[in-house]
Amino acid sequence: MPDTNPQAITMPSPRVPEIVQLLVLSTRHLPEVVLKVIEKYALVTAYRTRHGALLHVPEDHDEADFVGVPHKPGTALLKVMTEAHRLGCPYVLFDCDGDTIASLPTYPW
After folding, report:
1. For the purposes of burial, counting CB atoms within 10 Å of the CB of 61, is it exposed (0-12), middle (13-18) or buried (19 or more)?
2. CA dist., res. 2 & res. 35, Å (int)
3. pTM of this prediction?
4. For residue 24, what is the enclosing H or E element?
5. Which H or E run includes 76?
6. Is the per-residue pLDDT at 4 higher than 80?
7. C-alpha dihedral over 17, 54, 28, 72, to 10 degrees?
């Protein structure tokens, strides 16, 4: 029997959390010096991890967004961001055991 009490609390229906895709790449897709300072680049949200880094890929991330910005990310990082965006991945996990992909350059470590 439904509760007809006007003071009864109505609980909202549970929401389904957003699930996003994560692109896992080898750290070799970035020069070692870039990975070491990835958290310091202007307009880049990234966090170092024990074996790489986690990078957020913003919707707008082309080189024009970084014109005049001191300590801007280089071409290697922008290429990774473009590839992740093309694949529909808002995050990239750089991992020392991650795979390399042919569409991105690799760098010696």
Report:
1. buried
2. 59
3. 0.78
4. strand 22-26
5. helix 75-86
6. no
7. 120
Please identify which residue in the block is written with the tokens 């913003």: 58
Q: Residues 6 or more apart from 108 whose CB is under 8 A from it?
A: 28
Tell me the C-alpha distance between 62 and 56, whole Å. Answer: 14
For residue 8, pLDDT over 80 is answered with no
Altogether, the residues listed in the chain come to a count of 109
Answer whether 107's CB lies under 8 Å from 26's CB: no
Closest by alpha carbon to 43, among 79, 72, 7, 4? 72
| Tens-digit pLDDT profile for residues 31-86 | 998 899 898 887 789 999 999 999 999 887 767 666 666 566 788 898 999 999 99
